[in-house]
Write a structure and sequence with these properties.
Keywords: Signal. There is one protein chain. The protein has about 525 residues and is α+β, with helices and mostly antiparallel strands. The chain has 3 domains: about 90 residues, Immunoglobulin-like, CATH 2.60.40; about 70 residues, Serine Threonine Protein Phosphatase 5, Tetratricopeptide repeat (Alpha Horseshoe); about 300 residues, Beta Barrel (Porin), CATH 2.40.160. About 25% of the residues lie in helices and about 50% in strands. It has 8 helices and 26 strands. The strands form 4 sheets. The chain has a 16-stranded antiparallel β-barrel. Strands 1-2-8-7 form a 4-stranded antiparallel beta sheet, with no helix packed on it. Strands 3-4-6-5 form a 4-stranded antiparallel beta sheet.
Length: about 525
């Protein structure tokens, strides 16, 4: 019985084992777990070709490169499949000079690049290829060259600024122009070049330099304001003046004058003046020596074309015309940062300095030299000498004189209000004056030119009293060593309601020393200026 029982138990146990094995075999395809065949591992390929090297990882099947991260010299790659048993320890030795170290794990690789090495990563469905180049050395050299150029640019800028502040504007301009040609994108140097050209009186070149700077920094307010001010002072404009003038005990004149400036291509400028003068006088000496009233109008015109030369020089040809006079003039000017010198010769210029000249076709021939100089930030000097010949229509040589003019001005307050005091000299020494005889045989001077030597002290103040409203005032005393002395003064007010429009009024009191009568002269008037 016992033997039969053991056989029955063994038979039952064997049946349970076979059933469990059958269940495991049946469940194997559907249970999760690792494949019975080991997974395919990545294959590594390393090559070196001259200035390039390559590191390649490939899988037999599809793979995705899920992460490419660069941090300094470290390049991290992570994939959607494990690396398997691929050996990467030999890569640094095989890529010596390109890769300093390799760290890797289950699905990631970290490459530590050598210095001056750049890695370019290309990924596809089969893996990844990393191409190494040593272009970083040239990039570093380019960076060093760029840094050197930036340092040289700053050095040149401050050298030019020092030259400009020390009064060597031409040298500063030469340096800045070289800088602009070598680096047109240097807005700072272009802006300084604009200021230098403006200081030298080359406003067209200054405007071009402002444009170059604004092309790089279009929203710079200092450049916008600088160019606007430059065009405001030198752009095309037309002006209409109307004045009333009364010489005590003599004539009353009403003067309308239109002047204008038009800039042309090629550094040329046209200026013009058209004047109508109405004269009312009860007694004036005529050509025959008779005294008679005169109530009438006279006109005169000036038309000039000026050419600005490259080095701050300007030549001007002027045509003069009136009812009984036609003349021409030529002047040439040399200008630098602190001074300007002009020489000129004028033949048969209509002259309205004398009442007799207004009535009977006055004219003047003149040879002159003028000089203006800024001695310092506060001192300014100007002087002029000239030789003059006066005449009337049909009689060109009635009086000759030498004239001397000068001014020495000191700025008391350079900030607003701008205040200055000046010594002024206005002298004319008549060396020859023709006398005729009237019908009664009495001598008379057809042009009453008289010697004068006027020394004056003047105090001037000007300032802005509100936005777009400014004033100026002068008061002083004139002493004529050859004639009569007295106080003099003037005041003016200007308003700019628009950028293109300016309206002004003025009044003055002086002495008509040029006529030789020392009569008081009162004047008042206004003007309308339009910029376009």
């Amino acid at each position: 019985m016992a033997v039969c029982r053991r056989r029955a138990v063994f038979s039952a146990s064997r049946k349970r084992v076979f059933a469990l094995l059958a269940l495991l075999v049946a469940a194997t395809p559907i249970l999760p777990g690792r494949s019975q065949t080991p997974p395919s591992m990545a294959q590594v390929e390393v090559t070196r070709e001259g200035e390039r090297a390559r590191f390649v990882l490939r899988w037999p099947g599809a793979v995705a490169t899920e992460e490419i991260e660069r941090r300094g010299r470290e390049l991290t790659l992570r994939f959607s499949r494990p690396l398997g048993g691929v050996a990467l320890d030999s890569v640094p030795g095989r890529l010596q000079g390109w890769v300093d170290n390799v760290l890797y794990g289950y699905d990631s690789v970290l490459l530590v690049l050598a210095a001056d090495v750049v890695a370019d990563v290309t990924a596809d469905r089969s893996g990844v290829a990393v191409t190494f180049t040593k272009e970083a050395k040239s990039l570093r050299a380019a960076g060093a060259a760029l840094a050197e150029r930036v340092a040289q640019r700053r050095l040149d800028y401050f050298r030019a600024l020092t030259l400009l502040e020390s009064g060597q504007a031409r040298e500063a301009r030469a340096l800045l122009r070289d800088r602009a040609q070598s680096d047109p994108r240097d807005a700072q140097s272009s802006a300084l070049l604009a200021q230098t050209e403006e200081r030298l009186g080359r406003w067209r070149e200054a405007a071009a330099a402002y444009d170059a700077a604004l092309a790089q920094t279009p929203d710079d307010p200092s450049l916008i304001v600088g160019k606007a001010r430059l065009l405001h002072e030198n752009g095309d404009r037309a002006r209409l003046d109307s004045d009333w003038q009364r010489v005590r005990g003599a004539d009353v004149q009403r003067i309308q004058r239109m002047t204008g400036v038009m800039n042309l291509p090629g550094s040329n400028t046209i200026t013009y003046t058209l004047e109508n003068r109405r004269v009312d006088v009860d007694a004036a000496i005529r050509r025959d020596g008779a005294t008679a009233p005169f109530h009438g109008a006279r006109q005169r015109m000036e038309f000039a074309i000026a050419h600005d030369w490259p080095e701050g020089e300007r030549s001007t040809l002027t045509l003069h015309a009136a009812q009984q006079a036609l003349g021409v003039g030529l002047t040439h000017a040399w200008k630098d940062e602190d001074s300007e010198t002009r020489v000129g010769l004028i033949w048969s210029e209509p002259s309205f300095a004398f009442l007799e000249g207004i009535i009977d076709g006055g004219r003047r021939d003149r040879l002159f030299v003028q000089h203006e100089e800024r001695l310092s930030d506060r001192w300014n000097l100007s002087f002029a000498v000239g030789y003059n010949r006066y005449g009337l229509s049909g009689a060109a040589d009635l009086a000759r004189s030498t004239s001397v003019e000068g001014a020495l001005r000191y700025v008391l307050n350079p900030e607003g209000p701008l205040t200055s005091v000046a010594y002024l000299l206005d002298a004319e020494y008549v060396g020859r004056r023709v006398q005729w005889e009237n019908a009664q045989g009495q001598p008379f001077a057809p042009l009453p030119a008289a010697t004068r030597e006027v020394h004056a002290l003047q105090l001037s103040v000007e300032d802005w009293i509100a936005d777009y409203v400014r004033y100026s005032a002068q008061i002083g005393y004139a002493y004529d060593r050859r004639g009569k002395s007295g106080p003099q003064g003037a005041v003016s007010l200007a308003w700019e309601p628009l950028d293109a429009l300016e309206i002004g009024v003025r009044a003055s009191h002086a002495r008509s020393t040029a006529r030789g009568t020392a009569s008081a002269v009162n004047a008042a008037g206004g003007y309308l200026l339009w910029r376009y």
